[in-house]
Specification:
4-stranded antiparallel β-sheet; 1 helix; 4 strands; elongated
Length: about 70
């Protein structure tokens, strides 16, 4: 956590996962599952969230769901 007089930055790492129940992007549902770490960076100002940036490996999620071709 970085803070200053007016605000700060909070970084949160979580693993998001589940079982695919419907089409996602160009991947049809096959019942596959995935688990992938995600990083969220929250910029705060005056006690409120002013912005969010998120990072994850989309190619890894696609591979886990059985889509091996990366366009």
């Amino acid at each position: 956590v970085r803070t200053g007089e007016e605000g700060g930055v909070v970084a949160v790492e979580v693993t998001i996962g589940g079982t695919q129940a419907s089409a996602w992007a160009n991947i049809s549902a096959r019942g596959g599952s995935f688990a992938e770490p995600h990083l969220f960076v929250f910029r705060c100002h005056d006690g409120l969230i002013d912005g969010i940036t998120a990072y994850w490996n989309n190619a890894s999620i696609s591979r886990q769901l059985g889509h091996l071709e990366i366009d």
